[in-house]
Task: structure prediction
Amino acid sequence: MLKLFSWLKGNNNSAMNDARRVYSKTMAQSRNAVFFTPGYVTDSYDGRMEVLCMHLAILLRTFKKHGEEGRISGQALYDVMIDDFDVALREECLSDTAVKRRIKPLAKMFFTQAKVYSDALDSSNEGDLGVIVSKFITSDGKKHADYTANFSRYIRAYSTILDELSLGQIVKGGFSYPNLT
Result:
């Protein structure tokens, strides 16, 4: 209700528009076929969620560095993400009650992963990110050590790209993605 009341008053409307733009760009990147090469990220609902959440977690980590405006942008991005999850679940013909039951674990999973990625990126131990990638992203970390290393480099490079930009550049979609090699 508060979110609706805020929208009616026009508060943070630009933040929501920016969040939709960033979310749409992030969603498109997260669906890039390169992430779902056989044996790497499983091309399934869970695999696609992992890749999307990883990208969003890094965005939220970056937003936190931009003070109050970053907090507002992060909240708007989170709200857009939850709204998208809600729509997706309703498209599966779930009832209001079932949607609520499914959204809570998704939100909890996202926040858990956001913290894990943030901690790994902040860690002085370069191996921490590889452990996270093996756990959340790759389908078999032992078989695909090269992919785990490449994905870890991708995450670090993506974080660096965002860190070098202003909040305004990020929310206007003025960022790129590194290559996953």
User: Anything to note?
Assistant: Residues 19 and 77 are 5 Å apart (CA to CA). The two ends are 45 Å apart (CA to CA). Confidence is low (pLDDT under 50) at residues 1-10.
